[in-house]
Amino acid sequence: MALDVEWTTTATQGRPSPGGPPLLALRKVTKRFGAVEALTDADLTVHAHEVVALVGDNGAGKSTLAKIISGVLQPDSGTVEIDGDPVSSPNPAAAHALGVSTVFQDLALCENLSVAANIFLGRELRASKRSPMDIDGMELASAQILRDLTITVPSVRTPVRELSGGQRQAVAIARTLTTRPRILVLDEPTAALSVVQTAEVLMLVERLREMGLGVVIISHNLADLRAVSDRIEVLRHGRNNGSFDAATSAPEEIIGAIAGATRAVRPAWATR
Amino acid sequence: MAGSQTALREANRATVVDSIRRYGGLTQVELASTTGLSAATVSNIVRELQAAGEVDVRATIHNGRRAMLVTMVHRTGLAAGVHVGTRHMSITLTDSAQQVLVEQALPLPHEHRADTSLDRAALLIVELLARVGAELPELLGIGIGLPAPVDAATGTVSVPGILRGWDDAPVAQVMSKRLGVPVFVDNDANLGALAESRLGASRHFQDSVYVRASHGTGAGVSLARNLHRGFAGTAGEIGHVQVDAQGHVCLCGSRGCLNTVVGAPALIEVLRASRGSLTLRDIVALANDGDPGCRQVVEDAGATIGAVVAGLAIAVNPQCVVVGGELAETGELLIGPMREAIRRRVPLNHIAPLEVVAAELGPNAEAMGAVLLALENTRTTLPTFARPDGD
């Protein structure tokens, strides 16, 4: 398998017209765990070239929603649509095949392997099925991916244990891009990072948006989310509680919606 | 082939220096893997560079092992330049010879507040210092550029309402108290003017105007190579010149200011019906990709800004107008119509025609200007730099 490293050019294709179907849409998604209603009729849409932030209190359903998008969990009711077509992702591999990649909080990197080996972990390049791994090819492709993302990692041969938190996050994001996803879910990408590392990750999110991906980002830091996202979706007790344009809304409104001081203008149960 | 060996060594040397610059500081082992050179070659090159006084090598602990950290030599201290923009903050760290050591940008939220942003700026400076292997006492000064008129003497925003969330913040005082370093604050267009007139496109001219076309528009005026700030720091605030008497009311309180017509919210609103929700960066990227709607909007903005700059040019008669800011990343798309609008209105001068050119320092002009502000101010107060620990 020859990896074609021109993936950025395909990702930067012209953006769809504003009226077109969203890249990803979750409609009236409900998920129960016994008596716990993690999500009740939750809606979410993501377009290409868009960063959507999911915010809410602990237990608001952010991670459940992310896991439904990434195929880890299946909704009890409701539909997941990609490009306007209903799809089902029974497992993460199926979601992957549909162009949805996820970077979970623990990153799942192998500390002892190099940056290049981590980026191609489980998808190692080989000239043919039985031939050995094409290490040079993987290192070159990794260097290309990192360069396109303007990630500064000293070398693709560096073992991941020697990298900073921000660089690890960047490598985890770079790894998801080898399969050319169209939707990327980032779960708490700036948790436990220093300010410089946070800055690097946020600049990377902007770069992903410029490349044409739809990005769903979950975080507790409202300042970071407001800095990089286009739209902020508030979840409260598993329900949508407001959608805010990050370019115009004030933090007080968003915090009010998270805390329940304000209700969504049209709550899901009123539109039924 | 006699020269090839030397040429190779020169090239390797340049690669090593580039890598150190790019990362601020690297251990010798990291340098070897970054450059692809052998450990022995790197070791030799580093020894040569150290002998030439270009790099510093100090023992450090990296991943629990002893390692040699290589950094560029900081000539007599460092300076930090902070540009706080509408949606981004960028920080540049240089040595006193204005050699850039490390740069970092950080996205900022809409209507960011002074307390959070200054806190982040302070932490970023400290972390970047650590990255280049320097300590806080080596920092000579910090320059900060804000997208609003600034009273340079007190280091606060002088006109309320333009930069919400920063109105009463004693910016210079907060930062200098926190980091124990002299802090100088100025308007970002003024800093762009300073940087371009010292190091950039207008360095050969006595009198120049720098126009910063970004989320808002402003200008910095450099007369006889000195920045002209005006009494309250509002000189060159062309964003608040009236261009439409029936227009929208501006943040400053008056009506139909240039910013209400060519500011980012105005441009985004004009494109919303046909292009959906865009950001200023999207508009610049799409215009550069040839999107006709975005090109149209940028060209019209250029002509409108040009008409206002023409007035300023008549008032101060500069030799050169330098155009920077995010919108200027569209190049001639913005600058072409601007030049035309300026030339049409400014009386033709046979001796020295007015030049309208793009900024040479690009998006770094403001942060670099902040560095220059800090260096030029500390030089007068601190004629010779003495290390606090006495060596």
In short:
With 272 residues, chain A is an alpha/beta fold. Chain A has helices at 7-11, 62-69, 92-97, 115-119, 135-148, 165-177, 195-210, 222-228, 251-259; strands at residues 24-33, 36-46, 50-56, 77-82, 85-87, 100-103, 183-187, 214-218, 231-236, 239-245. The longest helix of chain A is centred in the last third of the chain and has 16 residues, at 195-210.
Summarize the SSE layout with pairings.
The complex is a heterodimer of chains A (272) and B (391).
Chain A: H1 7-11, E1 24-33, E2 36-46, E3 50-56, H2 62-69, E4 77-82, E5 85-87, H3 92-97, E6 100-103, H4 115-119, H5 135-148, H6 165-177, E7 183-187, H7 195-210, E8 214-218, H8 222-228, E9 231-236, E10 239-245, H9 251-259
Parallel strand pairs in A: 3-8, 3-9, 6-7, 7-8
Antiparallel strand pairs in A: 1-2, 1-4, 4-5, 9-10
Helix pairs in contact in A: 6-7
Chain B: H1 2-23, E1 25-27, H2 28-35, H3 39-51, E2 55-62, E3 65-72, E4 78-84, E5 88-95, E6 100-107, H4 114-131, E7 139-146, E8 150-151, E9 156-157, H5 171-179, E10 183-187, H6 188-199, E11 208-213, E12 217-223, E13 226-228, H7 258-262, H8 264-275, H9 280-289, H10 292-316, E14 320-324, H11 332-345, E15 355-358, H12 365-381
